[in-house]
Hints:
This protein has three helices and two strands; from the N terminus they run ααβαβ. The protein is mainly alpha-helical. It folds into two domains: 39 residues, no CATH class; 59 residues, HUPs (Rossmann fold). Helix 3 links the parallel strand 1 and strand 2. Helix 2 runs parallel beside helix 3. The chain starts with 7 loop residues before the first helix and ends in a 6-residue tail after the last strand.
Amino acid sequence: xxxxxxxxxxxxxxxxxxxxxxxxxxxxxxxxxxxxxxxxxxxxxxxxxxxxxxxxxxxxxxxxxxxxxxxxxxxxxxxxxxxxxxxxxxxxxxxxxxx
Length: 99
């Protein structure tokens, strides 16, 4: 989560929100170690630094569904993480609702 430039109060709110989401996944997959790390950094730099400091075995990023011509492209954050990560990266595409 990119919280660059946000006050400490917002940072704390972001941490609590992310912990609540992580708790749902911890209950569903108790065998996994899930950590929340909210940083004030550029998203790519923050994700890479967190993965390195946690000695992550896998980083999961969200890809963007795009029009057919650009379907193979990642967003700039996903692309940056894939290009520079020192561990495997899984790109997950979240279904979107057409409006």
